[in-house]
Amino acid sequence: MEPSDADFAAALSVVEHPPRPTAAPAPPTTKSSQGNKVQQPTPQALPSRRGPSAILVAPRQKGNPILNHIHSVPWEYSDTPADYVLGATACALFLSLKYHRLHPEYIYGRIRDLAGKYNLRVLLTMVDISNHEDALRELSKTSLVNRLSLVLCWSAAEAGRYLSLFKSYENASPASIRAHQATSTNERLVDFITVPRSINKTDAISLVSNFGSLRAAMNAQPEEIAMLSGWGEKKVERWCASVREPFRHAHAKSRGGRGPAVVPPVPGGDDAAEDVNASEEEADQLTFDPIADDDDVDDAAPAPATLTTVNTSSHDDAGTTGMVGDIDPSLPAGVQAALAKLREKT
Description:
Elements: H1 5-16, E1 55-57, E2 75-77, E3 84-85, E4 90-96, H2 97-102, H3 106-114, E5 120-126, H4 133-145, E6 149-153, H5 156-168, H6 185-193, H7 201-211, H8 214-219, H9 222-226, H10 233-244, H11 250-256, H12 269-276, H13 280-285, H14 333-345
Parallel strand pairs: 1-2, 4-5, 5-6
Antiparallel strand pairs: 1-3, 3-4
């Protein structure tokens, strides 16, 4: 069969105009040091480590009455070094003081088997003996050394409740137990006023709104505060006592401003000192009088005693120079009397 004219024309067009090769896809643009962008890989968030959904109970705890009181969370048996696994990083060891009194070495072997596998390690102790003071003192020291949290319980129901709470709050945030921090000035003012007992937020708002400022409320008379609604006699007394009592304790206040007794040097040597300290009454006279007003204890500190002496020459037969001089009138009366007696003897 001979080719037709149409086939001949198609073959001629292919020879004269060959098909162009298809271009390969261009690689992704990158940013070099001259300013081109570099495409960084997107970081992948790793899944958080989560513990089992149920409490894992060691087979050694079969028959423990605690298991009958775990109701709010499921539990199942598992081969674990701890008695109860409460999460990915939390576990609990159970100990009865009655069993601990018979086998005191048991708990130390159980702690050794944990080998630091858990961050939170609870020592759940059943107090089922009467004389438990010595045993608890020993377990407290052991828990402190081995990083255990000692939790006491007096019944199986209480122990089961503790295990259920530990498991239910495994992934809870600390916001539920964190104290509320005041952010605004009004909230801080209310927190300050409600510090005294039985004063609530309503009383604090009424106090500030009636007096206009905290200074006016603190300087107000008890009769004026008693006229406010909700402010009874007890609240007024507690508020006035809180804002008027001194910050320093009475014992520290009387002790801090007085200081130790200062006795000026007695001229005349050791013999004269023995004469001055001959009796307790004379020794008491050498101390300063206490400050009369304790409220001004910081402003009225006792001044150091000074004694002005003038050397005088004694008789020729005396081998030493006398130290008798004029007595400073600013000294206390007891010191002046003692120095006057010493001057007469000299």
